[in-house]
Write a structure and sequence with these properties.
By secondary structure, the protein is mainly alpha-helical. The protein has a single domain (4-161), classed as Ferritin (Up-down Bundle), CATH 1.20.1260.10. The protein is 74% helix and 0% strand. It has helices at residues 4-33, 37-63, 83-110, 114-144, 148-158. The structure holds fe (ii) ion (2 copies).
Length: 172
């Protein structure tokens, strides 16, 4: 059984992942409205990843005999402006996600639930990847500046993103 304090913290994290997914979905809609289908696709795949993160924790709670309690999501507020501004917001979302995972990891250690500590290691690595990939995109935005053809090329490149394979962990 999961210790109560940890079960509550994992539930908060499930909410955090779902809220992030919702943010990315709103960003995808924003870019569709702007006619930037490549950026929209990238955000849509990011939405899918956050949903997978939520589901990893959702299934984990149940495997450990705990209960999931879902709470309401907030309406996402997407910053208006250049495409780069939205990607900057995405980076902030990921930094908040990283901080939340670290907090959860600390609680799992505090209550000495080492199975959860182990389960969360995947998330620690994932956050490094997530932040790094958005940092790289932001570097490309800085290089592109206000050059429309460079921005359209970037839109096309990001539109080529493929969904990641789900890892074996979830094939129960
Ligand atoms: Fe996530
Ligand atoms: Fe993420």
């Amino acid at each position: 059984m999961l210790p109560q304090k940890l079960a509550a913290a994992i539930n908060r994290q499930i909410h955090q992942e779902l809220q992030s997914a919702y943010h990315y979905l709103a960003m995808a809609a924003h870019f569709q409205n702007e006619g930037l289908d490549g950026f929209a696709r990238w955000m849509e795949l990011q939405h899918g990843e956050e949903m997978q993160h939520a589901m990893r924790l959702f299934r984990y709670v149940h495997r450990r005999g705990g209960q999931v309690h879902l709470s309401g999501l907030e309406a996402p507020q997407i910053r208006q402006g250049k495409p780069m501004v939205v990607f900057q917001q995405a980076l902030e979302t990921e930094k908040a996600n990283t901080a939340a995972i670290h907090e959860l990891y600390a609680i799992a250690n505090e209550v000495k639930d080492y199975a959860t500590v182990s389960h969360l290691k995947w998330f620690l690595d994932e956050q490094v990847e997530e932040e790094d990939s958005i940092e790289q995109i932001l570097a490309h935005f800085r290089i592109a500046g206000d050059d429309a053809s460079a921005l359209l090329l970037l839109n096309r490149q990001l539109g080529e993103r493929q969904p990641e394979e789900e890892t074996e962990e979830e094939e129960e």
